[in-house]
Amino acid sequence: MKFMSLEAMVPGWIGEQSVSEIVDNVEIFKKVHYVFDDYPSDCIVERSGVYLVTQELKDALKDINATGCEFDDVIVTESEAYEEHTSHIPDHSLPSFYWLKIVGEGGKDDIGSAESAITIVVSERVFSVMRKCGLRDCIVYDWSDTSKVGTHISKLPP
Length: 158
Known about the structure:
Layout: E1 3-7, E2 12-14, E3 19-23, E4 26-31, E5 33-36, E6 44-47, E7 50-54, H1 55-63, E8 69-72, E9 75-78, H2 82-86, E10 97-102, E11 111-113, E12 120-123, H3 124-133, E13 139-143, E14 150-155
Parallel strand pairs: 5-9
Antiparallel strand pairs: 1-12, 1-13, 2-5, 3-4, 6-7, 7-10, 8-10, 11-12, 13-14
């Protein structure tokens, strides 16, 4: 099975209502608050190894029984700059988002993390679902389980 690693869009930051702890020099989140500075053009966004997906992508992943992931609620807010950055977009209200918890192993499960723990690795079938749900700014790499590194494919066309 073919796998890709993704560099998801980062249209915001982790907010002050998040709850996390450091375990073995890794930040583990218990609760996530994501603050959007800009409108997300993709169905998946990221910050600091925390991934959010739209309701549409969440439902599609459940429909195909994607392995290696769980979903949880997330607190979503807009920054003071959000209106300024998005006023040119006709309907710039945010879609519903969910926290995508990656519990799988990259190259084995449909959704997993690589050794870095912040790189998301997805199977070809999950990538196909993501494309249908909307990927414009995500950068995609071919991912090889043996090398644990990616080869740049390209930035996705609009």
